[in-house]
Write a structure and sequence with these properties.
By secondary structure, the protein is mainly α.
Length: 452
């Protein structure tokens, strides 16, 4: 690379680092216009840095990645300012350290007796920070293990617990990028494509910065995929189960293995995943745990709404017909639609193999998110991770426009601007159509006739 281009690339990286620092530690989520300006500037730098990665070696990618992913750890104020979910993580960890099942009761119950709550490390400061005071925890056992470890290492400091969790996410992100490189080489794909994920602003802000544990799910899914690609199909059920134990969503990917492993091996694989996941639940499992977890999931899908797409269109029609929100009525039908859609996709998939499995992951997750009533920005990081191995970049585009949804947090009333939501999805849909048509066109182009 010419010296001039190298210097400009390094300047872009340093500018990006400064922008990340301002965004992560000096931009309250209520300040939407500052937030969206910084995301926009970071997106422009991101495209430039990824473009430069095409002409650089893996050392370039590693250097930029380390620089960006360490930023969330270097501020004296380690607590995220763009998300308050970490308070529940610390809360659950404190309960586990004191031998209490975090699925047993909602936070409000413990605060009915403040002295007793304080003995469990449940302070008033911690309780005030919760955004889910009246709900049972929804976090699966692998995440509960992370919460326990963070509270065990730092039992009296919220900041200390957050530091531990950020460190764990940093390790998971490093592992994800390492496995992406191995997989890209395995499938003889350009290694520089890992930069689409490693440099992505949403990945850095929402996972490393805001402490969202899609990072662990992505890490374990990549691990499982690597072992599947290497022929270690039975061993891969272990990290796959750990992915399920981090977030339940990977369960819907299991049908994709049927035409790759066959019915018999897939049945064995699925049984192993279920058994290992069940073992992960043993430390906190009883009937109440199951019922409370089910209640949390049911509430999640039948009460909460945020940044949805098709669901909002159906809701709008429902309002016109019934005069009220029909979320309670349509939730189960949307779930059924996802289930049927996965089945149809599985058996219509063309030439299923390990190399195109990530593309199928992307389409299945897209199907699910399209019908979901809640699509938080960090959900799209999973799409970005697996798009690295595909021809499609619409997940990247979505990750760059989904910060528009932060408009909702401008006030504590949390009112969405549906025009911004529509703009977000319009951009994504147009890009999907463009890429699909482009891919279909490239397949139909015939090579020129060879001279005789």
């Amino acid at each position: 690379m010419p010296v001039r281009i190298y210097i400009s690339t390094m300047i872009t990286a340093v500018i990006s680092a400064g922008l990340y620092y301002i965004l992560l530690f000096h931009t309250p989520r209520e300040n939407f216009f500052q937030l969206i300006f910084l995301f926009g500037a970071l997106s422009a730098c991101y495209i430039l840095l990824v473009k430069a990665a095409k002409n650089q070696g893996i050392n370039y990618v590693v250097t930029i990645t380390v620089l960006f992913h360490l930023i969330p750890l270097i501020s004296p104020n380690i607590l995220p300012v763009l998300s308050d979910d970490f308070y529940r993580f610390v809360w659950d960890g404190q309960l586990l350290v004191h031998g209490i099942n975090p699925f047993a009761a909602i936070p409000e119950v413990y605060m009915e007796n403040p002295p007793s709550a304080l003995a469990y490390g449940l302070t008033e400061e911690l309780f005030r920070g919760l955004n889910s005071k009246a709900y049972f925890t929804i976090y699966p056992p692998v995440l509960q293990g992370v919460f326990y470890l963070s509270a065990r290492i730092s039992p009296e400091s919220i900041a200390g617990s957050v530091m531990v969790m950020k460190g764990i996410i940093l390790v998971a992100e490093a592992g994800s990028i390492w496995m992406m490189v191995r997989l890209l080489r395995h499938f003889q794909l350009p290694v520089w494509q890992v930069a689409w994920y490693a440099f992505n602003p949403l990945v850095i802000v929402e996972l490393s910065g805001n402490l969202h544990f899609e990072a662990l799910m992505i890490f374990f899914l990549l691990w499982a995929f690597l072992w599947l690609a290497e022929g270690k199909w039975l061993l891969s059920s272990i990290p796959f189960a750990l992915a399920v134990g981090s977030k339940l969503l990977p369960l819907m990917l299991l049908p994709l293995l049927i035409r790759r492993l066959g019915w018999g091996k897939t049945l064995v694989y699925g049984t192993m995943v279920v058994l290992i996941t069940g073992m992960l639940f043993i430390p906190v499992f009883d009937l109440d745990t199951f019922l409370n977890l089910y209640e949390s999931i049911d509430l999640y899908f039948h009460k909460f709404e945020f940044n949805a797409s098709i669901y909002y269109l159906i809701r709008w029609v429902g309002y016109r017909i019934t005069g009220y929100n029909i979320i309670q009525l349509i939730g189960k039908y949307l779930a059924l639609a996802v289930f049927v859609g996965i089945g149809i996709y599985t058996f219509l998939e063309k030439k299923p193999g390990w190399k195109n499995l990530p593309e199928s992951f992307v389409w299945i997750f897209l199907m699910y998110f399209s019908l979901a009533s809640i699509v938080h920005p960090w959900y799209t990081t999973t799409l970005v991770a697996f798009s690295v191995f595909t021809r499609f970049r619409f997940p990247v585009i979505w990750s760059l426009v989904v910060p528009l949804s932060y408009f909702t947090y401008r006030t504590t009333a949390y009112h969405e601007n549906l025009w911004l939501t529509a703009l977000e999805y319009l951009i994504v849909v147009v890009w999907i159509i463009f890429e699909v048509k482009n891919q279909m066109g490239s397949k139909t182009v015939k090579p020129p006739d060879q001279p005789v």
